Amino acid sequence: MAESDTVFAGSIPRFYDTLMVPLIFQAYASNMAELVAESSPVSVLEMAAGSGVVARALAPKLSVGARYVVTDLNQPMLEYAASRQGADARIEWRQADALDLPFEDAAFDVVCCQFGVMFFLNRFAGYAEARRLLRAGGRFVFSVWDRIEENVFADDVTNAVATVFPHDPPRFLARTPHGYYDIDLIREELSRAGFADIKITTREDVSRAPSARHAAIAYCQGTPLRNEIEARDATQLQLATDRATAAIASRRGEGPVAGKIQAHVIVAAG
Ligand SMILES: C[S@@+](CC[C@H](N)C(=O)[O-])C[C@H]1O[C@@H](n2cnc3c(N)ncnc32)[C@H](O)[C@@H]1O
To answer: Would the CB of 114 count as within 6 Å of ligand 1?
Structure first.
């Protein structure tokens, strides 16, 4: 993984939350909130919470006496999330690396993480942390994207941006968010971390944007793909976004656009 893959800072949090979240994260966040809440947990830890889409869906489902600790590696993402949440004494916002969390063993009923584990430099360490933090009978609920070919806008954008840098194409989307989809590998890594009961569900959904340009800006400017483009040549960010817009529009039309997205949702316990 490139170092820039985990940097969600600068203008990324705002573009991420206003464009990426409605495009691909919102639908899965509603499902994750339901999955987490179904066991009526009184203590929940969220890893890699980003701009807070799961927190906004989950907090209303938790009991008045619940404790909900929301963490992320990048303070700018967490600040953005907290600013959108509104006052809630049950929520503690904490900047923390999911691979080394500052909490006692067995402190939580549920640990959750939406589309975050792909960014962990050492997934085993992240899974071991989740297991250490769960009380007996607790659940680790998380999600990962399926391969990029099953997620059509990400694929269109990656191919289009490659035409701007043909000798060194930015591969962030394929490498990281869409680079960890092998169910057997996920099972194996969870088992090594001590989880015995592992359920994996593949969920297809539809991604919608008001226009091809909305989707292109979301991917090119609201994710670390932006870091990768700017590291090659910052003056090409607009051209890269234009090419991505044209690629999406040519396949999905000039007006509102829709495309398939697909992810694996995992519940691990034991
Ligand atoms: C694709 S975003 C997902 C954010 C959020 N869960 C959502 O569904 O919108 C990935 C997030 O992982 C965070 N992240 C990356 N590496 C991390 C780590 N080692 N520990 C905690 N968070 C991390 C990033 O800061 C970013 O907010």
So the answer is: yes
Please tell me the distance from the alpha carbon of residue 165 to that of residue 225, in angstroms, as a whole number.
13
148 vs 154: CA distance, rounded Å: 6
For residue 166, the CA-to-ligand 1 centroid distance in Å is 29
The whole-angstrom separation of Cα 113 and Cα 259 is 24
Averages of pLDDT over each 10 residues, the chain, 270 residues: 80 88 95 98 98 98 98 95 94 97 98 97 97 98 98 97 98 97 98 97 96 95 94 97 97 93 97
Ligand 1: nearest atom to the Cα of 114? 6
The answer to whether the beta carbons of residues 90 and 118 sit under 8 Å apart is: no
State residue 1's pLDDT score: 79
Where b means 16+ CB within 10 Å and e means fewer, 236-261 reads bbeebbbbbbbbbbeebeeeebebeb
Q: Which two tokens stand for residue 73?
A: 């590696």
pLDDT at residue number 41: 98
Ligand 1 pocket, residue 47 CB under 6 Å = yes
Least Cα distance to 215 among 2, 22, 4 occurs for 22
Whole-Å CA distances, 37 to 108, 124, 129, 145, 198: 13, 25, 21, 22, 18
- Other CB atoms within a 10 A radius of the CB of residue 202 amount to 12
Are 231 and 17 a contacting pair, CB within 8 Å? no
